[in-house]
Design goal:
This protein has one domain: Trna Endonuclease, Chain: A, domain 1 (3-Layer(aba) Sandwich). By secondary structure, it is of the alpha/beta class. The radius of gyration is 19 Å and the shape is globular. The strands form two sheets. A five-stranded mixed β-sheet has the order 1-2-3-6-7, sandwiched between helices. About 6% of the residues have low confidence.
C-alpha cells in the first residue's frame, strides 16, 4: 500500500514540475502586452542574397527595432555561439539561431536602412544550458530583455514608417 502512495506522489510531482510546452502564439501574446509604445509585427518574408528569410516577430519602438527569432523546439540547448549547429535534445540539432538572426538583421538593413536593430533569439520551450550572450534568452527573459532598453532613438513618425515598410514586405 505504501508503494502505491509513493508512486502516486512521484507521478504528481513529475506532473507539477514538468516543463509544459507553451502554446503556439505565446511569444506573440507576450509581446502584445508590452504596451502602446511597441508596435508588433510578425511573419514577414524578407528577401536576401541567401534567399527568403522569415522574420518571426519584430517589436518596433522608440528604443529600436527588436528583431526576434523564435525557437519553438523543446529540450536543453547546448553548443557554442560560434558553431553552425547546436543540440537541443539527444537526437535533434538546430541551425545556430544567432546566425539566422544576424542574417535577418543584415537583410532588414538592406531593406529599411540603418536603424538601431536589437537582435533577440527567444527559446519558447527550451532551457539554455550555456551562456550564449545577452541576445539569447529563454521565454521568461524576453520581456525583461526588451525593457532593458530605455533610450529613445526614433520618433513616433519613424516608428510608423518602419511598421509601414515592414507591412510592405509582407507582400
Amino acid at each position: 500500500m505504501e508503494w502505491i502512495l509513493a508512486v502516486g506522489v512521484v507521478a504528481v510531482a513529475i506532473f507539477l514540475f514538468k516543463k509544459r510546452k507553451r502554446p503556439a502564439g505565446a511569444v506573440r501574446a507576450a509581446l502584445e502586452k508590452l504596451g502602446a509604445e511597441y508596435k508588433i509585427i510578425g511573419d514577414v518574408q524578407v528577401s536576401s542574397p541567401k534567399g527568403m528569410l522569415r522574420l518571426d516577430h519584430a517589436a518596433v519602438s522608440p528604443y529600436g527595432i527588436f528583431v526576434i527569432t523564435e525557437v519553438k523546439e523543446s529540450g536543453n540547448v547546448r553548443g557554442n555561439a560560434s558553431e553552425r549547429e547546436w543540440s537541443i535534445s539527444r537526437e535533434e540539432t538546430i541551425y545556430n539561431p544567432l546566425w539566422r538572426n544576424r542574417t535577418l538583421v543584415n537583410a532588414l538593413e538592406e531593406k529599411l536602412g540603418k536603424n538601431k536593430y536589437l537582435p533577440i533569439v527567444v527559446f519558447a520551450n527550451a532551457s539554455l544550458k550555456q551562456d550564449y550572450g545577452k541576445d539569447a534568452v529563454e521565454y521568461s527573459g524576453l520581456i525583461p530583455r526588451i525593457r532593458f532598453f530605455t533610450n529613445p532613438v526614433m520618433s513616433p513618425e519613424q516608428v510608423e514608417e518602419i511598421i509601414n515598410r515592414l507591412h510592405g514586405l509582407r507582400g
